[in-house]
Amino acid sequence: xxxxxxxxxxxxxxxxxxxxxxxxxxxxxxxxxxxxxxxxxxxxxxxxxxxxxxxxxxxxxxxxxxxxxxxxxxxxxxxxxxxxxxxxxxxxxxxxxxxxxxxxxxxxxxxxxxxxxxxxxxxxxxxxxxxxxxxxxxxxxxxxxxxxxxxxxxxxxxxxxxxxxxxxxxxxxxxxxxxxxxxxxxxxxxxxxxxxxxxxxxxxxxxxxxxxxxxxxxxxxxxxxxxxxxxxxxxxxxxxxxxxxxxxxxxxxxxxxxxxxxxxxxxxxxxxxxxxxxxxxxxxxxxxxxxxxxxxxxxxxxxxxxxxxxxxxxxxxxxxxxxxxxxxxxxxxxxxxxxxxxxxxxxxxxxxxxxxxxxxxxxxxxxxxxxxxxxxxxxxxxxxxxxxxxxxxxxxxxxxxxxxxxxxxxxxxxxxxxxxxxxxxxxxxxxxxxxxxxxxxxxxxxxxxxxxxxxxxxxxxxxxxxxxxxxxxxxxxxxxxxxxxxxxxxxxxxxxxxxxxxxxxxxxxxxxxxxxxxxxxxxxxxxxxxxxxxx
Length: 535
Description:
Blueprint: E1 2-7, H1 11-20, E2 28-34, H2 37-47, E3 51-55, H3 63-73, E4 78-83, H4 88-91, E5 101-104, H5 109-130, H6 133-157, H7 162-171, E6 180-188, H8 194-211, E7 215-220, E8 223-230, H9 237-256, E9 260-264, H10 274-285, E10 296-298, H11 299-302, H12 314-326, H13 329-341, H14 349-369, H15 374-378, H16 384-390, H17 394-434, H18 442-449, H19 453-464, H20 468-486, H21 491-497, H22 503-514, H23 518-530
Parallel strand pairs: 1-2, 1-3, 3-4, 4-5, 9-10
Antiparallel strand pairs: 6-8, 6-9, 7-8
Helix pairs in contact: 2-3, 6-10, 8-9, 12-13, 12-14, 12-17, 13-17, 14-17, 17-18, 17-19, 20-23, 21-22
């Protein structure tokens, strides 16, 4: 349902527009009524209308100026101008302002309904054009190789959930369904025509890999990555991978006569762990300089691999960091439970210590990124890692890590709240000092504070329970009341002193917010003072 803002300085016109048009039937909803262009502009910041229906002739800001200002803020907003016959030539300026429709007064509800129906259809057509399925499909197929390459890079370097990867793979036409997975990295040793020969080697590898139904072959960072997808399960997966790798190497040697080496990692159980298999494959590839190694180097042959190797991977780092910075205590406890669950009796003391050091290092980085110093939290001279090594057992070490995490999380949350309050306090001070500036705006305050307006608006409303514009108006009205009570200044002088460039608009706002005109308020205040009462 599209949002509509109605703007007219005549109350009966506004009310007539509300009741005489079946807005719901048009799939439209009125989100605001404004009496003039200036009020409408301020209101538009809050209600974000899709359509603005406005009179052309209004005090403080006419409809054409309003349309121009709205366009600068939101080029997609639709503007309908209401104008009389005597203003028709003036209204034709609307064309240069990209006003979407104009309607001559007097008009009937039927005429306005017809116009809105046409505008509503135009908006729907624009949405349909942006979402044109055929265009999107053509663009999608053009981008498919890039999408596939991006997914494969993510698979090798980031740890994402298996559900996420399968979903993305399906979108870009890849089948990664399997029981287990392996990664091998092939590099060529050559000096000339590197790109051309690498491309030829990729074609050979892709063809052989497909013949074995082994998975996918692709280029990545000047190497050929052979992603093995074991679709059968059982105990023969490693043998199938080995046979496919041997045939790839045999074909490359036969057709290209180029020396090549393959590094192959351990087979893993899930797609989420493929990045670990890639790390192992790259480690294996490093052994190609060791004398006596074969052209296919398996990490299990050159390095001792413990079952269930402890890895504090990217996914665990991200989860812990998020919980520390923005999570609840329950979420942090759950995250730590997952981290500790990886540790078993099979792991050596040194492996466990290294693992927990990586956990604490992530905690330390999260604290620093949030502007907190560990010395301030734990005291000068603390020895976090040394204290961990002195603990007698795993349970005590886990308890220590948990205590550190909870304390850091609490400190970050407190610091963030302090930052919020400090920013808002600075904004309040700046506003009180500059409310007399008629050009004072959210953008000016944010420029002073060096923060984005979106971030500022959110924390300001959360802390003050008012939008910035509402607070500014409140400050100006309070200052105006004080000046009316305590001085003999004219209304136009008071308007200038409290930030209104137009005295008439000041009087309009004062009556709207206080309930009486400035003149009536001064008379009431004077009468109350003479009677000895305080108002």
